[in-house]
Amino acid sequence: MDHKKDRREFLQLTGKAGLSTIVGSAAGINLGVFDLAHAQPGNKVAPFRFAMITDSHLFSGDDHKFDRQLEDAVEQVNSMEIKPDFVLYGGDIAQNGTEDQLVKGRKLLSKLDTKLVLIPGEHDWYVDMGAAWKGMFGQDHWSFDHKGVHFIGMNSILVKDFWTAKQMSPRERMAAMEMLEGPIGGLWGVGEKQLEWLKKDVAKLSPDTPIVTFTHSPLWDYYPRWNFQTVDGPQIREILSKFENFTSIHGHVHQTVYNKVGNMTSIGAMSTSWPWPYPPVTLAYPGSQMNRHDPGNEVDGMGTLAVSVKAGGQKLAEYQPFGDSLTPYLKKGLKA
Amino acid sequence: MKATFKPTLAIAVPLFVLTALASGSASAREPFSKEELDKQQAKLLELVEQGYNLWHGSNPEMSGNGLACGNCHPDAGASNPQTFPKYIQNMNRVVQWGEMVNWCIQNPQAGKALALESEDMTAMYAYAMNLHRGLPIQPGLASLQTKPVPVKYGKGFPSKPSGIGFDTK
Predict the structure, then answer these.
(1) Residue A226 touches chain B, beta carbons under 8 Å
(2) pLDDT higher at A218 or A182
(3) Domain range holding A55?
(4) What's the pLDDT tens digit per position in A32-49?
(5) Number of domain units in chain B
(6) pTM for the full model?
(7) Spatial CB neighbours of B17, under 8 Å, sequence gap ≥ 6
(8) Do B153 and A96 count as a contact with CB atoms less than 8 A apart?
(9) Does the N-terminal peptide bond of residue B148 adopt cis geometry, omega within 30 degrees of 0?
(10) Number of folded domains in chain A?
C-alpha cells in the first residue's frame, strides 16, 4: 500500500472540501499575477484569492516529519479549486535559523504553482540577523498593489540587542529566541525604520483603498509573554487608521484567532508544524478558537489559510486544516 | 471454633505507640524549623529548574527529531498534571501523568521514554505542577484540558535556555 500516495490524496480531498464555502463572487476568477507597474490603488477591487502558509519550523537533516507537513501544505494550496493569485509565507521557515533549514524550506516552497511572497519569523533570523534569509528571499518589508488592494509585509520580530553585553554567540542568541516563553529576548516589534517606511508607503493612498498587512506576530496585545504581540502595533494601527478596510494577517500563534481593534480586523493562521494551546486570556471573539487538537492525530490542529477578496474589498478567510480541527463556526469562514 | 484476637500487654503497648505516630501526635517529632523548610524548598526549586531545562531540550535522549516538550507546551500549557490520572483515548485506559509524558517523548518527539520513578521524570512533574499550583486537583476532567496557566510576563528562570536541536548539555 502506498501510504504516501494515500496521504496525498486525502489531503487533496480535504483541501477541496475546505473550499466549499467560497463566496460566489470569487468563483472562477483568476486574473493573473502581480501587476506592480500598472496597479491602480483606490480603484474597484477585482475579486481574487490568496493563500497563506506559515510556521513550518523545519529542522536540519532529511525526512523530518515537518518537511512532509510543509509538503502537504504546498499540495493543499496547489490543489485549491480556485487558484490563489499568490501565496504568502508568514515566517518561521526554520526552527534553528540555520542556512540549511532555510534552503530546505525554499526548495519545498518552490513546488508552489503560484507566486510566493515572504516575511521572516524569529526562528529565521537570529543566527545571522537575517543575512541568509534576505540573501534567499529579499527584503524583509515590502508592499505591492494587486487588483485594487494594497498589500504590506513587515518584519515584526526585531528585539533590542540583548546579546552584545552578555557576549552571546550567534547560536546562543538564536537559542534564546527559540523559546516561546524565554525570559531573555523580550518584546519585539518592527522598529522605527519600518514605521517611517510605512508612513511614506501609504501616504498617497486614498482611504478607500483596502489594506492587507502581513506580519509574523499579531498587531494587538494578545499575550505578550509568548510575544503574541508587536510592541509598535499601536503605532502601525495609528498610521493605518485612515483606511476604511484594513485587515491584518499574521502567523506565530499556531492557532486560529480573530480580533477587531479600531478599524483593523486581525486574523491568525494555523501553522504547518504544531498547534499551540490558547494562552490564558479572554478573547473578544472566543468563537475563533479551534478545537483542542488530538495529540494522537499528527495532522490535527495544523493547516493553511485561504482568503477570498470580494469586489467591495471585503474578505472571507477560510482555514484549510489538515485534519478535522474546526468548529462549525470556523467552518463558515471569518469575515474581514 | 472461630478464634478471637485478644492483644496481650506486650503487643498492646507497641500498638499504642504506632497509633500515636500515625495520628501525628506531638510526640512524633518537632515541627520543621525555618532552616529545614528553606532547605526543603531550595531542593524543590532545584528540581523545578531541572524540570524546566528538561522541558526545553536538555536531555537529547528524550528527542529523536529535535522537538522538546516546550515546543507544544509553552509554560507547561495544556500539559495539565493536575488532571491526572485520566483516561487517554489513544491508550484506551486511565494513565498517570508520567505515562502521557512518555507517550509524547516516544511519539511526537521520537525519543527514549524516561523511567517513571526517575529523577528526571520527578523533575518534569515538579516543573509542570509548580506552574499549576492553585488549580483544583480534578483527576480525569477532560473539560480542563484547555485550562490556561497564567504566568506573569518577564518572570523566567535564571538558567540559560539550552536550545533545541543543538547546544544541548
Answers:
(1) yes
(2) A218
(3) 3-335
(4) 333 333 344 445 899 999
(5) 1
(6) 0.83
(7) none
(8) no
(9) no
(10) 1
